[in-house]
Amino acid sequence: MRQTFEEMLSDIIRPEVENLGYQFWGLTSPASGKKRVVRIYIDSPDGVHIDQCARVSRQVGLMLEVEDVIPGAFTLEVSSPGLERPFFSPDQMVNYIGREVKITLFETHDDRRKFKGTLTGVKGDTITLNVDEEILNFKWISIKKAKLIHEF
Prior knowledge:
GMP Synthetase, Chain A, domain 3; 2 domains; three-stranded mixed sheet
């Protein structure tokens, strides 16, 4: 299976972030307009502060310039995943079982692409949601976006 641009970038950036002492949570890099935006999410047990994001941004920015893996101009953004964190793999969701999540599928399931429910399980590449008292299983590969819903 061919690696996506984001997976290739993640493989390059992950060790750099981890060497600085942070957890690499994930990245997005939608191509839009003339300038690509590379958005990196980092975390740590104590959370992440602006100074830490700036440090990672400087280090990763230098490395990306040297490696020259991104064609053309790009903007690099580094932040914490936040309270309504996006998920980049099913194993990231394990610690959030019992919490509300929202997923968007690539293709419709029962005439819907968006589901909001309680995460009740994660097994391998399958996540289980309780949506309006109905238990639904979704393969990770069918999920376009998944994020935590923070209850205020």
